[in-house]
Amino acid sequence: RHIPYHLGTATLPPSEAKLLKEHLNMGTECVELYLDTDCKNIFHCIQKMRHLINSYHDLVPLILPHSSSNKFIVFFNSRRAAQEGAQFLCSHLPKDQIELVKRIHSGMSNEFHHDEVHALKIGNWLGTCATDAVGMGIDIPDIRIVVRYSVPTFLNSWYQ
């Protein structure tokens, strides 16, 4: 039986990583990803979720204190989660900001997708809740907060 593991570390030396993989019986089919985090303007942060994943309450301290001044994108693993996440955030925003948070996913038309990304780029929207489909190939230089809500389901999501 195949059981997937997700092991993240910033400080584990290679010798210890080897021992850990042996202890977990991780064979040669193990996939290792090394991400360069040596960018002066990017700060990675991993937080343990304190609430049920489908409650979206863990988004509150990440997005809401900064919502009036910083554009954001929250990436979700599914269309449904992106829609529910957007609804949750909107329900916690001041009334004048509710319409400034959108959702974008692959189930929407190319024209709608393009228009929504453009609106985010030019500042019409404060943020978006999206699937990985929106992140492929876009460049929005003034995005200040990017959240990956839960562990990505697919390997290509790690490279985003």
Automatic annotation (TrEMBL):
Keyword DNA-binding: yes
GO molecular function: 3'-5' DNA helicase activity; DNA binding; four-way junction helicase activity; hydrolase activity
Source organism superkingdom: Eukaryota
Cellular compartments per GO CC: chromosome; cytoplasm
Signal sequence, start to end: none
This enzyme's EC code(s): 5.6.2.4
SUPFAM superfamilies for this protein: P-loop containing nucleoside triphosphate hydrolases
Reaction catalysis annotation: Couples ATP hydrolysis with the unwinding of duplex DNA by translocating in the 3'-5' direction
Pfam families reported in the protein's UniProt record: Helicase_C
Helicase C-terminal domain location: 58-160
Family under the similarity heading: Belongs to the helicase family. RecQ subfamily.
Name of the protein this chain belongs to: DNA 3'-5' helicase
